[in-house]
């Protein structure tokens, strides 16, 4: 019997996005299932982050449909769109923290915009988010310039969780981190996914993230999805870029039956 797949929490159909005379996404189709970590890969400069920003409404599309939580984003009123936006969190590649605000104040920005809370509750909720991402309590009063690269990622992750989102968008979350820090961040994301029931869409170049954190992977090529599935499916695919990416010189070694494969 064929396993029934859950309805997609995000569904993209025939998406076309471009800038001036260049078309970046060319009729792209992609489903992201509720409760999964979807890794999104592809050659540099080919539109991985463009897809994220288009879903978020930061880049206009030329045609196609984007449905989130079963709703067509084009058909929403401003109020409906704002309610949907409160149900997702975003971590941009370099954190995008406000440099003039402390970690606590950065986390409180979306809370102040969307929630009517007392200062006491704002401080308490910010403290909980800081603890949730593995930062020490004293990080609350530090400014971004006082944080390491790993701490900036965690502080930005805490801010993305400020409104208890159902979907988390991560843009190159482990870039700039050493292997240990990247592995710890992957573990944190996987733990948050399990404990909070998050759906995660993660743009990444990190092979270790794809192997250890992602339930499925989608690969972008020439503006479309060239393959999507679990890691075994991607490893077996014959597309030239996928072969080079997953089996090239920097491919991750896999140990099976006492033998080492790449």
CA gyration radius, whole angstroms: 19 Å
The total of helices stands at 9
Structural class by sheet pairing and helices: alpha/beta
Strand order of the largest sheet: 6-7-8-3-9-10
Number of strands: 12
The proportion of strand residues reads 25-35%
Element pattern in H and E: EEEHEEHEHHHEHEHEEHHEE
Proportion of residues in helical segments: 25-40%
Shape assignment:
globular
Distance between the amino and carboxyl termini: 33 Å
Described by strand count, sense and barrel closure, the largest sheet is:
6 strands, mixed
**What would the average pLDDT be, to the nearest integer?**
89
Unreliable runs: 253-262
Task: Note down, in words, how this protein is organized.
This protein has 262 residues and is an alpha/beta fold. The chain has 9 helices and 12 strands. The strands form 3 sheets. It has a 6-stranded mixed β-sheet with strand order 6-7-8-3-9-10. A 4-stranded antiparallel β-sheet has the order 2-1-4-5, covered by helices on one side. It is globular and about 55 Å long. The two termini are 33 Å apart.
């Amino acid at each position: 019997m064929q396993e029934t797949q859950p309805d997609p929490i995000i569904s993209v159909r025939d998406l076309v996005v471009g800038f001036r005379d260049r078309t970046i996404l060319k009729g792209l189709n992609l489903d992201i299932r509720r409760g999964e970590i979807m890794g999104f890969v592809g050659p540099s400069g080919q539109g991985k982050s463009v897809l994220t920003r288009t879903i978020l409404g930061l880049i206009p599309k030329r045609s196609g449909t984007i449905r989130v939580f079963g709703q067509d984003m084009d058909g929403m009123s401003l109020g409906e769109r704002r309610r949907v936006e409160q149900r997702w969190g975003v971590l941009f590649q370099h954190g995008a923290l406000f440099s003039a605000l402390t970690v606590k104040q950065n986390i409180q920005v979306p809370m102040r915009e969307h929630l009517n809370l007392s200062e006491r509750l704002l401080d308490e909720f910010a403290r909980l988010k800081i603890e949730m991402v593995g930062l020490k309590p004293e990080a609350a009063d530090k400014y971004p310039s006082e944080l390491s690269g790993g701490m900036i990622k965690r502080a930005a992750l805490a801010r993305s969780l400020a409104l208890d989102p159902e979907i988390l968008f991560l843009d190159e979350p482990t870039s700039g981190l050493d292997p240990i820090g990247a592995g710890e961040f992957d573990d944190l994301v996987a733990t948050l996914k399990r404990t909070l029931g998050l759906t995660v869409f993660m743009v990444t170049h990190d092979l270790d993230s794809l192997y250890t954190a992602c339930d499925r992977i989608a690969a972008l090529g020439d503006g479309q999805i060239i393959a999507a599935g679990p890691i075994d499916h991607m490893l077996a695919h014959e597309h030239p870029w996928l072969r080079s990416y997953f089996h090239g010189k920097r491919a991750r070694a896999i140990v099976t039956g006492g033998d080492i494969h790449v």
